Amino acid sequence: xxxxxxxxxxxxxxxxxxxxxxxxxxxxxxxxxxxxxxxxxxxxxxxxxxxxxxxxxxxxxxxxxxxxxxxxxxxxxxxxxxxxxxxxxxxxxxxxxxx
Length: 99
Hints:
The protein has 2 helices and 7 strands. The N and C termini lie far apart (41 Å).
């Protein structure tokens, strides 16, 4: 990682701080999730997620679902919202692939 990339990442982190999971609302906000494992935090995840009204987190592309393990520790918004139609489509795709 170059110095410019590191500074850009630090500026992005300062503008978009990680928030506790209890503050997440199921309003279709596109989010990044921070997961943890036994060795520590890892945020190399480039996927985007949204919290649904059923309390489950769904991955947007490719459509998927966040299962109980590894569970996310923190989230931060990506300042975009999915329409209810798009959220419904993603949920349908997840159900289709889980069968």
